[in-house]
Amino acid sequence: MDLQHRNNIKVMGDGPSTLIFSHGFGCDQTMWSYLFKNFTSRFRVVMYDLVGAGQSDLSAYDKAKYNSLAGYAQDLGEIIDQYATGPVILVGHSVSAMIGALADRQSPGRIAAHVMIGPSPCYIDSNGYVGGFTGEDIHSLLDTLDSNYLGWSSTMAPVIMGAPGQPALGEELTNSFCRTEPEIAKQFARVTFMSDNRRDVAGLTTPTLILQSTDDLIAPVTVGEYLHAVLPNSTYRLVDNVGHCPHMSAPSACTEAMDSFLSAWEGAHDD
Known about the structure:
Strand content: 15-25%
Distance between the termini: 39 Å
Helix content: 40-55%
Radius of gyration: 17 Å
Shape: globular
Structural class: alpha/beta
Largest sheet: 7 strands, mixed
Number of strands: 7
Number of helices: 11
Strand order of the largest sheet: 1-3-2-4-5-6-7
């Protein structure tokens, strides 16, 4: 399998370390256009589409393989092995933050640092853990998505984006959702929202920046605080932003937080 074709891989920039950008549900690599250019002068930058999203090879989509996030983590490991040079920093939005954690667990040392944007290890509340949704909420969401994916996308994408002062971003996310092949999107939504990766992140020692919006319907502040507590080498930064995509709606604040984290990481790495 040609990975470049499978995942529509793009490589740019130059530097001793590699930043790999991995997008969230309903998105593709174009969602990084507000952010990635700030890093191409210092890093080798790799962007890709998850199989089933964007311009990836839809014929590579295997329902059995992608019935858990582990299949996507396997793909990420292959991309790292073939396209990364030097230490790898994984920049993962939403579900891709957990895909990155799984790839890290699959091959310890492969990822040198994580930037998790709007991450959540579990969306469903349970036993003192506040994920932001009840089980009924998630099942209702998935039932609605199953019965009317395009209608669900048109309604939910602007809500997920937030950014009330930037309506064009909600339209951009809606269009991205609607470009995704519905049957693939339905399965990926179920895999995403039903996943529980709390055991996978607990105690992960890889340096991690947790970037979270102050007002996020999908990943509330309680989730960011939880991750900061269970990831021993984590840095927690709240971005003043409404919505689940601060890399699009607040790219300057995200760039500043990433610059600070990466500079500190580089300093420690140089030692």
